[in-house]
Amino acid sequence: MAELFAVLDCPLAMERIKEDRPITIKDDKGNLNRCIADIVSLFITVMDKLRLEIRAMDEVRQMLFDLESAYNAFNRFLHSS
Hints:
The structure is a single chain. The chain has one domain. It has 4 helices and no strands. Helix 3 runs antiparallel to helix 4. The relative contact order is 0.11.
Protein backbone atom coordinates (compact mmCIF):
# COMPACT_ATOMS: atom_id res chain seq x y z
CA MET A 1 0.00 0.00 0.00
CA ALA A 2 2.86 2.40 0.76
CA GLU A 3 4.06 2.05 -2.81
CA LEU A 4 0.67 3.20 -4.10
CA PHE A 5 0.84 6.43 -2.10
CA ALA A 6 4.43 7.01 -3.21
CA VAL A 7 3.35 6.73 -6.85
CA LEU A 8 0.40 9.06 -6.30
CA ASP A 9 2.71 11.61 -4.63
CA CYS A 10 0.85 11.90 -1.33
CA PRO A 11 3.58 12.85 1.12
CA LEU A 12 1.28 13.60 4.07
CA ALA A 13 -0.57 10.30 3.68
CA MET A 14 2.76 8.53 3.38
CA GLU A 15 3.99 10.14 6.59
CA ARG A 16 0.80 9.12 8.46
CA ILE A 17 1.25 5.53 7.30
CA LYS A 18 4.88 5.48 8.39
CA GLU A 19 4.03 6.95 11.82
CA ASP A 20 0.93 4.73 12.20
CA ARG A 21 -1.28 7.76 12.91
CA PRO A 22 -4.81 7.36 11.53
CA ILE A 23 -7.02 10.37 11.01
CA THR A 24 -9.59 10.08 13.78
CA ILE A 25 -11.21 13.51 13.68
CA LYS A 26 -13.25 14.39 10.62
CA ASP A 27 -12.59 17.98 9.57
CA ASP A 28 -15.71 19.64 8.22
CA LYS A 29 -14.09 23.09 7.89
CA GLY A 30 -16.33 24.53 10.62
CA ASN A 31 -19.61 23.95 8.80
CA LEU A 32 -22.08 24.24 11.68
CA ASN A 33 -25.17 23.48 9.58
CA ARG A 34 -23.62 20.27 8.27
CA CYS A 35 -22.70 19.24 11.81
CA ILE A 36 -26.25 19.81 13.06
CA ALA A 37 -27.72 17.92 10.10
CA ASP A 38 -25.42 14.96 10.80
CA ILE A 39 -26.44 14.86 14.46
CA VAL A 40 -30.15 15.01 13.66
CA SER A 41 -29.88 12.37 10.94
CA LEU A 42 -27.88 9.97 13.10
CA PHE A 43 -30.18 10.48 16.09
CA ILE A 44 -33.27 9.71 14.00
CA THR A 45 -31.60 6.62 12.53
CA VAL A 46 -30.61 5.30 15.97
CA MET A 47 -34.11 5.92 17.33
CA ASP A 48 -35.67 4.14 14.34
CA LYS A 49 -33.43 1.12 14.90
CA LEU A 50 -34.43 0.97 18.55
CA ARG A 51 -38.13 1.32 17.68
CA LEU A 52 -37.78 -1.59 15.27
CA GLU A 53 -36.26 -3.53 18.17
CA ILE A 54 -32.90 -3.84 16.45
CA ARG A 55 -30.86 -4.01 19.61
CA ALA A 56 -27.92 -6.19 18.63
CA MET A 57 -24.83 -4.24 19.60
CA ASP A 58 -23.05 -4.98 16.35
CA GLU A 59 -25.88 -3.22 14.49
CA VAL A 60 -26.33 -0.24 16.81
CA ARG A 61 -22.79 0.32 18.07
CA GLN A 62 -21.37 2.00 14.95
CA MET A 63 -24.32 4.37 14.69
CA LEU A 64 -23.91 5.37 18.35
CA PHE A 65 -20.20 5.94 17.78
CA ASP A 66 -20.95 8.14 14.75
CA LEU A 67 -23.56 10.07 16.73
CA GLU A 68 -21.11 10.66 19.58
CA SER A 69 -18.42 11.78 17.13
CA ALA A 70 -20.77 14.26 15.47
CA TYR A 71 -21.87 15.59 18.87
CA ASN A 72 -18.26 16.00 19.98
CA ALA A 73 -17.44 17.86 16.75
CA PHE A 74 -20.39 20.16 17.44
CA ASN A 75 -19.13 20.84 20.97
CA ARG A 76 -15.61 21.53 19.68
CA PHE A 77 -17.05 23.98 17.17
CA LEU A 78 -19.07 25.78 19.85
CA HIS A 79 -16.15 26.07 22.25
CA SER A 80 -13.75 27.26 19.56
CA SER A 81 -15.99 30.20 18.58
